[in-house]
Input
Amino acid sequence: MNDPIYERIQANPRFQELVAKRERFAWLLSIIMLGLYLAFIILIAFEPQLLGTRINPDSPTTWGIPLGVGLILSAFVLTGIYVKRANGEFDALNKSILEEVQQ
Amino acid sequence: MIARLLTTLGLMAVAPALWAAGALEGDVQRQPLNISAILMFVAFVGATLYITYWASKRNTSAADYYTAGGSITGFQNGLAIAGDYMSAASFLGISALVFTSGYDGLIYSIGFLVGWPVILFLIAERLRNLGKFTFADVASYRLKQKEIRTLSACGSLVVVAFYLIAQMVGAGKLIELLFGLNYHVAVILVGILMVCYVLFGGMLATTWVQIIKAVLLLSGASFMALMVMKHVNFDFATLFSEAIKVHPKGEAIMSPGGLVKDPISAISLGLALMFGTAGLPHILMRFFTVSDAKEARKSVFYATGFIGYFYILTFIIGFGAILLVSTNPMFKDGAGALLGGNNMAAIHLANAVGGSLFLGFISAVAFATILAVVSGLTLAGASAVSHDLYASVFKKGKANDKDELRVSKITTVCLGVLAIGLGILFEKQNIAFMVGLAFSIAASCNFPVLFLSMYWKKLTTRGALIGGSLGLLTAVTLMILGPTVWVQVLGNAQAVFPYEYPALFSMAIAFAGIWFFSITDTSASAAEERARFLPQFVRSQTGLGASGAVAH
Output
């Protein structure tokens, strides 16, 4: 383990910016995902008839279908959002920090 | 109010039991020998053995063997992870649940999916940046190698053992059901094939077997869903209204129903599933097969997409079975029940939409699914023995690649023999609890140590060792004293521990134990371990010094 370089990175304000930004983003998305799931559970617990209500009286599709499928899609979309930002903005910042301290 | 919420949470977590047991529980009726299924399965085995041969020529170093040299792309790894998750039981079990209860099936499958985004946000990239071959590399990064690797290897081996037994017994029964082969023949066949893949092909072959199977399963399921939608002119309203007309529960299949178990057990199992996934050695190992954190993130993105798509397909397939299977006397016995049980709903639907050839295809895919999952498990078990116990604990990090690989291969053969033996031994046993137990142990021992080693600076070896062991012991003890083992397996009248799944309690004990024995640790080595958190943290964030891909 090469200690000085790790300390230099740790002391670098841009590293701290990266960590703060990425951590905040990751926890925010985790909370959104768990929150959506919890909201879904609570809805089933307290208003199960709501999910069983038809969206349109002429069609058998109930509100539960778009909400359930929406939750599956939201898991996919949230991972997509994270990957896009982490592989773009965060990785670029990370790369420039590493280049800066290794000079 | 709270009771109602708990009940619902309970409902959410019944699915795992289904997933764990699914088609694979209870007595099965042996079916007549299915020739087209066997031919297609032979084709699959031929192709995968060829891949194993191809992979064996590329496997030269330990990195090749354990992690395919880090050469797997994010997309391929996403398919492989999805393959690990889409077991035969989840395909047959969830579509059967939709077939019998409609909307509940969708609720259940959602419970399995939401853990994945959280793994991506909180675990995947740190894990990739810190580890090399096994998750114990990460857990023991700044702690004492001997203690933490021994603990992690024990956690891994116990998880692998229970998971393997469940898969082997399930495989035997499913094959008996689908192909009409004898149980023992099936178990021995699965054991031999899995050893071949792992022994000669290592991670590269194991990954490709998993990818091929995932593609076959997704294509087969897509075709079935497509044929169902074609039958209703691609109109969901028609699909639902036709299903409501013929289903005995009528309109109720469109809203949350009520398969409810004891809520504490159910929450406990829910926790086990969510955090257990993040502690399964064969899943965690997949993150080291990609070149860097960027690809690791992409893998989870693709995996989440494939798994979510698969669950939507099973929902359509379940409704399709209501329309096309439940109304067809060909698939029913004299009493009006489905031939082979409700778990056969998807299999019968394959026959209904694609004839006997497609039925053979889907049966072969179900078999391939089991093979792929047991191979991944065996490789994870073998790495825990060779990389963690032999190379790091026994040889104190001074083992050479060649010896380490030899130990890994010997372990693979031992695990194969053990898996066949246990599969035969447990034939008549109720194995439904074993996957639940594997997840509970993963969530109570592997996950807390791994998670805190990456996130909590004050963690020390003493805390991790005592807390992790407490979690492991509590999970196993409570499981033995609980209703599934104490009453159903051992035949006692009353369970000592009233809940079916221990994770809620064993996770709490593990975290509390780790916390208490870490903060009270004032030894000099504890101070050093805390000091090493800084470089570990920088590496976990930046990937500086992380092991990369091996050029071929």
Notes: The two ends of chain B are 60 Å apart (CA to CA). Chain B touches chain A through 53 residues (CB under 8 Å). The mean pLDDT of chain B is 86. Residues 345-394 of chain B form the longest helix (50 residues).
